[in-house]
Amino acid sequence: MKISTKGRYGLTVMIELAKRYCDKPISLKSIANAQNLSEHYLEQIISLLRNAGLVKSIRGAYGGYILVREPSEISAGEVILALEGPITPIENIEDESKAQRELWTRVQQAVNDVLDHTSLEDLAKLETDDMDGYMFYI
Question: Which ranges does the record mark as transmembrane (predicted)?
């Protein structure tokens, strides 16, 4: 199971929006410059996030993007699901033995639990606060 650059960059965009939540809308150009990413690629990603109802665009000279909900209410799992689809450790799990199906199902549940119980607020705090020793627990 791998998260593609689309998922990683999309999460990066969402964390940047979470860090500046309640400020003015953020342009993709400023995020691209701050993170040294392709603005063109971020435009493709933000379109998927907008279609998933996670961000909205504000037009105009001072326009950009904002989160549609508070960062504490948006999970990393929602972002990854919108960009990558469901996370599965292996394909065709039904072809596996009973013991292996159980193992892969538990692995998938553990990954989903971490993603679903980690908010954008949590991730934004990790980037802005000195949180030595901070860990996520299931």
Answer: none
